[in-house]
Amino acid sequence: MLVQNNVVLLKFFLHISKKEQAERFQERLDIPHKRWKFSSGDLETRKRWGEYQKAYQDMLNHTSHEAARWHLVPSDRNWYRNYLITQTVVRALENLKMKWPQPKEDLSKIKIV
User: Fold this and answer.
1) Domain span at residue 87?
2) What is the CATH number of the domain that holds 61?
3) Is 102 domain-assigned?
């Protein structure tokens, strides 16, 4: 319905590797100002990594279509994640071919004194 009403949908799935997740969890334990991010529940969830990957794959396959597809973004490196997302947003904006609206009156003869 949104696409039929000319809404541009950009859906991003940010994926990190299991190795990167482990490093981020360890940082949360080692660096005091990051400890607030840590939850012991994350470790239980991590034990089911394979199940979650399968569930994500199923979700992506069932909720992606040509008019509103998912953009899978490798996110182990934040700078690269940001680059890919920015590139996708810029491309979507350029594809809109937007132009500044024309003024309602001729402004060429107006002089500011």
Assistant:
1) 3-95
2) 3.40.50.300
3) no
Kindly report the pTM of this predicted structure: 0.80
Q: Please count the other Cβ atoms lying within 10 Å of the Cβ belonging to residue 75.
A: 18
Domain-embedded: residue 101: no
Q: What is the pLDDT of residues 29-87, one digit of tens each?
A: 999 999 999 999 999 999 999 999 999 999 999 999 888 899 999 999 999 999 999 99
* Pairwise CA distance, residues 41 & 13, whole Å: 22
The H-or-E segment that residue 25 falls in is helix 18-30
CA 61 to chain centroid, in Å, comes to 17
User: Quick one: tokens of 94?
Assistant: 């350029």
Task: List the helix and strand counts (H, then E) for the chain.
Answer: 4, 2
Domains identified in the chain, total number: 1
